[in-house]
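Subject: Sanity check before I submit

Could someone independently write out the C-alpha cells for this chain? I want to compare against mine line by line before I put it in a report. The sequence has 427 residues.
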Amino acid sequence: MSRSEDLFGRARARVPGGVMSPARSYAGVGLSHPVFLASARGAHVVDADGRTYIDYLGAFGPHLLGHGDQRLRSALVDQIDKGILFGTSHGLEVDLADRLAAAIPEMEKMRFVSTGTEAVMSAVRLARAATGRSKVLKFAGDYHGHADAFLAAAGSGARDAAGSGVPGVPEGAARDVLTVPYNDLEAAARAAREAGRDLAAILVEPVSGNMGVVLPTSDFLPGLRSLADASGALLIYDEVILGFRARYGAAFPLVGPAPDIIVLGKVLGGGLPIAAYGARAALMDLVAPEGPVFQAGTHAGNPLSVRAALVLLDAAGEPGFYERLEGRSRTLCEGIMALAKEAGANVSLTRFASMWTLFFRPTPPTNMDEAREHDREAFARFFGAMLARGVLLAPSPYEAWFLTSAHDDDDVETTLAAVGEAFSLLT
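---
Independent answer below. Compare away.
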C-alpha cells in the first residue's frame, strides 16, 4: 500500500469523503485515492511517496509565483517574528489598500476578508443594501463560493448542484437568485425584465474559470453593463481567479467595461488566505462602521496574508513579468494543440493569459451545457497518463491549468513530451 493510499484510508475515517474539499477528490478521474502532497518548490510538487510532478494544478489558482518563492518566505518569516494576528488595525493593510487602489482605480475603497466566498457574500450584501432590492442574476457554470444562495447551477466542485435540490439549502435561500446560461445575453435580458425593479445585482466571472476556462463573447459583458445601467442594478465582477492572473490589476479591461463592485482573491495572497471586495468610495461607505451594512471577520487583514500580498504585488509589478508568462503559456498551449492534431485527438483548448483548459470535445464551449458535452472517459485516461508521466493536473475536466513564473522551458518541454505520449494512448 502506498503512503497516499494509507493516508486516504485514515482520512476517510475522520473526514467526509477523505478530503477537505470535493474538488480534491479523484473519483471523477477513476482513481481509488487522491494524491497526497508532502512538499513543493518552484513549479514542482512531491507526493507522500516521494514522486515528483510538474504542477499545473497550482492549488486551483493562487500560485502565480510557484511554490516556496524566496521573497515570500523571507517576508513571512519576518512577519511571524513581528506577529501573526493582532485583532487591531495595522499599517500593512493600509499599504495594501493603497497599492490595490493604484492598480485598480475602480476600487477606491475596499475591505479585506479571508476567502472568496466571504468576499462575494459581502459584495452581494452591499449591492442589495445600496439598491434596496433583493434579486441577483448569475450565470450557470460560474462558481462564487459555497454560500447557500450561489450553489444553484454552480461550476467547479459544485457543478452538479441545482437550486433547491442542494441538500441543506432551503428553497428560500435561492429564491432571489436568477440563473441563466453564460454568454446568453438574451436570457439575461429576459431575467432582468422579469425581476424588474427588484434586481439588485448582476454577478458574473468576466472570464469563467469554473466550468473550465470559457471566454465571454464580444457583446456579453458590454450587454450586462447596459442591462445593469438600464435596470438600476449593480454589476459585480467575481475576479477571485482572474485578478492579477492576466495583468497587473483586474483582468476586466482585457474583456469588457468596468463593473460597480470587484471581488479579488487567490493570486492576491500568493498562497495565503486573503480576498477583497471594493468599489467607488460612496458605495463602500455603506459598510459598517461608516454605514449600516455589517461585515466583519477575526482574520480579515491577517498580517501574514497581507504581507504575502505585498510581496506578490512587488513581484508581479516587475517589468516583463506578464509578458514572460504570456509567452511561455502560448508556447505550451500551441504545442499541446499541435500534438493533438498530429495524434488526431478530438480536443479543443481555451486559454486566457496563463490559465487554460483542454476540453475533450471538438470545439471550445461557450456555456456550461456545452462544457458538459465532453468525453469524460477520454479525460480520465488522459489525466491518468499525465499523472503517470509526472505531470499534475486538476482532477476534473471543469478546471483550469495554471502556469506560474517558476515554470521554465525544461518544464514546458517535459510537459509536451508527456502530452504527446498521453494523446497516443487515446487514439
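---
OP: Matches mine. For the report I'm noting this point. The chain has two domains: 3-68+320-426, 70-316.
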